[in-house]
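Duplicate of #3305? Posting structure anyway:
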């Protein structure tokens, strides 16, 4: 299973979908057409998770060596966590393997933030 990731036209919001025939949504399930109703608080929370880094800065041709997933933008699985702050986390099939591919500036901070969110409480 794979997820595609894209940014909104204004570049401020990430959308995901799990196949070419499914609609784009926010990671928590909010449809793309409704994203303008999404609160500024939730958007700030999303940005804080990614520490202001652009997920889309990763080479679009990057695919995991395992070949388990292919994504036009980023080989990843995104899981929405519906909480008051609408924080999101990203879980990689093989976090160590993916980390070795994170060459672009800022991606190490993204990986650190995601690893913290994926640790059990």
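Output from current build:
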């Amino acid at each position: 299973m794979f997820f595609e990731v894209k940014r909104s036209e204004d570049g401020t919001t990430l959308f995901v979908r799990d196949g070419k025939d499914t609609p784009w949504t926010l990671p928590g399930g909010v449809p793309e057409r409704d994203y303008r109703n999404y609160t500024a608080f939730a958007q700030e929370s999303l940005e804080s998770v990614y520490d202001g880094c652009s997920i889309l800065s990763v080479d679009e041709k990057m695919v995991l060596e395992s070949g388990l997933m292919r994504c036009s933008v980023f080989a990843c699985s995104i899981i929405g966590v519906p909480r008051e702050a609408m924080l999101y986390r990203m879980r990689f099939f093989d976090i160590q393997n993916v980390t070795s591919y994170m060459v672009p500036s800022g991606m190490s901070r993204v990986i650190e933030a995601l690893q913290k969110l994926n640790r059990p409480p």
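Confirmed duplicate; merging threads. The first helix runs from residue 40 to 49. Residues 7 and 13 are 5 Å apart (CA to CA).
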